[in-house]
UniProtKB/TrEMBL annotation:
InterPro entries: Hydgase_assmbl_chp_CS, Hydrogenase_HupF/HypC. It comes from Candidatus Bilophila faecipullorum. Belongs to the HupF/HypC family. One of its GO terms (biological process) is protein maturation. GO terms for molecular function: carbon dioxide binding; iron ion binding. This is HypC/HybG/HupF family hydrogenase formation chaperone. It comes from the Bacteria. Pfam families: HupF_HypC (PF01455). PANTHER family: HYDROGENASE MATURATION FACTOR HYBG (PTHR35177).
């Protein structure tokens, strides 16, 4: 099972690749933005699957998802890696 954790775009390249960070953690992804219906911009939140950005999220929705993932980790006695 895959969990869709929001990633924030921090860099764009001319060839459609996006560099994004997951939460506040050290995880950084380089993914293709070619499947997005509209281009992602720096600061946008995206959902990634199999190396492709699949969906853009509103900032409030992304922050709430990250908060809930962190809360779920805390309830299970773990620390979220993001």
């Amino acid at each position: 099972m895959c969990l869709a954790i929001p990633a924030k775009v921090i860099e764009k390249t001319d060839d459609g690749m996006l560099k994004a960070t997951v939460g506040n953690g050290p995880t950084c992804l380089t993914v293709s933005g070619i499947l997005l219906p509209e281009a992602a911009e720096i600061g946008d939140y995206i959902i990634v699957h199999a190396g492709f950005a699949m969906h853009k999220m509103e900032k409030t929705e992304a922050e709430e998802s990250l908060r809930l993932f962190r809360e779920l980790a805390a309830v299970s006695g773990q620390e979220a890696p993001f």
